[in-house]
Amino acid sequence: MNDIRMIREKPDLMREALVKRQMDPAPIDRILALDEERRAKLSELEALRAQRNSASKEIGRMQDESGRETIKDRVRAINIQIDGLDTLVSELDAQLQEALYELPNVPDPDVPPGKDDSENVVLKTVGALREFAFTPLPHYELGPKLGYLDFERGVKLAGTRFYVTSGPIAKLQRGLIQWLLDHHIARGYREFGLPFMVKQDVMLAAGQLPKFRENLYHDVERDAWFVPTAEVPLTGLHMGDILDGEQLTLNYTAYTPCFRKENLAAGKDTRGIKRGFQFDKVEMYKYCKPEDSEQELQNMFADIEDILHLLKIPYRVKQLCTGDLGFGSTKTYDLEVWAPGIGEWLEVSSASNVRDFQARRGNIRFRRSPGAKPEFVHTLNGSGLGIPRTMIAILENYQQEDNSIQVPDVLRDYVRLDAIN
RNA sequence: GGAGAGGUCGCAUAGUCCGGUCUAGUGCGCGCGACUCGAAAUCGCGUGUGGUUAUGCCACCGGGGGUUCGAAUCCCUCCCUCUCCGCCA
């Protein structure tokens, strides 16, 4: 959420942000009007309440019964006005709040302009693409051929966009999660085991609601929403807290499955394990002071890059342009790995500086020193990594002519296999 | 699922029966100051959050609603915690 005071004082900054994101700046005018009216009515309301409070105190002090009744009549009249104004102010408040919740974050000036993902900027490509002496197979042929990846059974169990892994591929999946978590822990991140469902206000704080309702799985009976990423409960952890400035930066990591309703037409992009309705991911998350967030984004990015070095998979780094930037992000780097079987670069991680956007929504603050005014923290999130796409990259890059798969060196202790065959 | 107890300003508690003098006392913690060569101890002062057209005013005693001129206090409802019983992975 953006600061209403900022919008009030510099509306053009906000309009410009929307235009950069290829969105309509019109809501700003409505927000300004709502804000102005709300404040006008609010001060009227408060003046009336002040009158009522002092009159009521007077009644308490007064001995004379008929005098009391006179004042009571007066207060009853004031109360009718208060009721009306109170209702009006609550309505204005709700409308304003709703409009603010729909506004995306303001892109960092550093973010390249662009209309959509075609204008993202490739910053670098790291590692040589492997030369194959044979034609590399896509994972969705390789897996079933080995007998450890079963799309039919996934569909039988849960419908389209689900699959079943087994044997060594199931083990690879589990080992990968374990290795990633251990890697982050060794770099100072604290591991969390989190609920895979959260309440609505957590979704709101993380910025998933109200805008992305149609992409979320939801238990209507219980106000329980399935997490689309561990970023959501990691944001919720400190909702309402005032953190100790001395303790920042907080570096967190967690594994969760991620549930995403994505109504794509059945087709090429949904083939294989690239875009399931459920997938595993290890997430990284930081709470820091405002002045540190840019540096922390670089730190997080370096931590992610390190993983790809260790896995020895070629990757490239993209900076998202203004038109493709996520709703809550001010600046995002995507890391994409090369998958030679399907011949695509696959996004396995996305690292974003959200600044105070989630902190405002979730009211997450810190105190610089004891007694100082609370300030909003900055939050950052990054995948480290998305499991299915990392598995695609491993399966396709490490495949041999006989269809067996070499297990990357760093994973051998975790998977307890040298090869999948 | 059944029976009961409870949720108050960082923590611990008082206040709730008998509505106004309670935004709210006390202890601890924390901050500033005094005393001291310095420290401990002691003493004094201060110490929630937010809104606002701002030396003021308004809101907040788990959430929501009601009664009343006036609610931490009375009523309804929801949530959560704890104890006992039942059931169960």
Describe the 3D structure.
With about 425 residues, this protein is an alpha+beta fold. The chain has 2 domains: about 5-100, Helix Hairpins (Orthogonal Bundle); about 115-420, BirA Bifunctional Protein, domain 2 (2-Layer Sandwich), CATH 3.30.930. The protein has 13 helices and 18 strands. It has helices spanning about 5-10, 10-20, 25-60, 65-100, 140-145, 150-160, 165-185, 200-205, 230-235, 295-310, 355-360, 385-395, 410-415, and strands spanning about 120-125, 150, 165, 190, 195-200, 220, 225, 240-245, 250-260, 280-290, 315-320, 330-340, 345-355, 365, 375, 380-385, 405, 420. The strands form 5 sheets. An 8-stranded mixed beta sheet has the order 1-11-12-13-16-10-9-4. A 3-stranded antiparallel beta sheet has the order 5-7-6. Helix 3 packs antiparallel against helix 4 (about 65-100). The chain is elongated, with a radius of gyration of 27 Å. The protein starts with a helix and ends with a strand. The structure holds one RNA strand of 89 nucleotides.
Give the end-to-end Cα distance, rounded to a whole number of Å. Answer: 50 Å
Could you name the CATH homologous superfamily of the largest domain? Bira Bifunctional Protein, Domain 2
Work out the radius of gyration: 27 Å
Classify the beta-strand content into a percent band. Answer: 15-25%
Unreliable residue runs? none
Overall number of strands: 18
CATH class of the largest domain: Alpha Beta
- CATH architecture annotation of the largest domain: 2-Layer Sandwich
Largest sheet: 8 strands, mixed
So what's the overall shape? Answer: elongated
SS class: alpha+beta
Q: Which bin fits the share of residues in helices?
A: 40-55%
Say what the CATH topology of the largest domain is: BirA Bifunctional Protein, domain 2
Sheet with most strands: strand arrangement: 1-11-12-13-16-10-9-4
Calculate the mean pLDDT score and round it. Answer: 91
Number of domains: 2
